[in-house]
Amino acid sequence: MRQQEKERxxxxxxxxxxxxxxxxxxxxxxxxxxxxxxxxxxxCNGRLTPPVYDYQFEKGxxxxxxxxxxxxxxxxNRNHGLETVMESLSIPCxxxxxxxxxxxxxxxxxxxxxxxxxHYAPRPCFVKVCPFEAPNGALQVEHLTEKHxxxxxxxxxxxxxxxxxxxxxxxLVLKASDDGVHFVLLNSFDKYSDHNFSVVSCSQYRPSxxxxxxxxxxxxxxxxxxxxxxxxxxxxxxxxQVSLAVPGYFYGEDGKLDLExxxxxxx
Length: 267
Description:
The chain is an alpha+beta fold. The protein has six helices and 17 strands. It folds into two domains: 18-88, Herpes Virus-1 (2-Layer Sandwich), CATH 3.30.40; 123-265, Sandwich (Apoptosis, Tumor Necrosis Factor Receptor Associated Protein 2, Chain A). Helix content is 18%, strand content 29%. A hairpin with a 5-residue loop joins strand 10 (171-176) and strand 11 (182-187). The radius of gyration is 27 Å and the shape is elongated.
């Protein structure tokens, strides 16, 4: 073993070099701390993007294009130096306080795209009237069970779970005994229309395999409605693109719906 270690030290294995844009490879880079407040318009306090102007009347400050039109144009000049800094600037994800370590270009739309899709973005509570927000599904489930007193239904993958859901019940919390992953069955009900049921994942990590859920609603008369669709991660919206629409007359005289939930993992 020691001889092998000596051989590796004398003849190290070359590591693959990440390809870079030729312009970036030729440039000199450094990491600096920058107070982002200086990248705001001195008049409207909006976030600056090119073109940027120096307003020199009395006490000089930097302005955005719209404010430059309102102020005296002859007293302002383009600040190309600051624009160049902006073009090379990358900033931490707005959700870095919640654990995201990504950096995104300051000027590109990727900031908005990343912020929207970021796994650490705070999501609103499943209970619409509640102001609570949490950056991941695990905290959402903890909040639902501790604050709102929702019961957790335990189930196993590939084994259907039968539940009875009340008309005004907004959701059910489900926990897989196999791996501890939590799911939420959403009831996006509307008293003037059908009830729309969908299942979302509330895990802190992205599963390596895609999961599916088959929902089956059965009326007292024996009529059935079913939906088989992929399970998506909770993204902050109340409802998903695919849901099972169940008419109100499927509910029994006791005001409950007979619903079977079958969650399984793709092989």
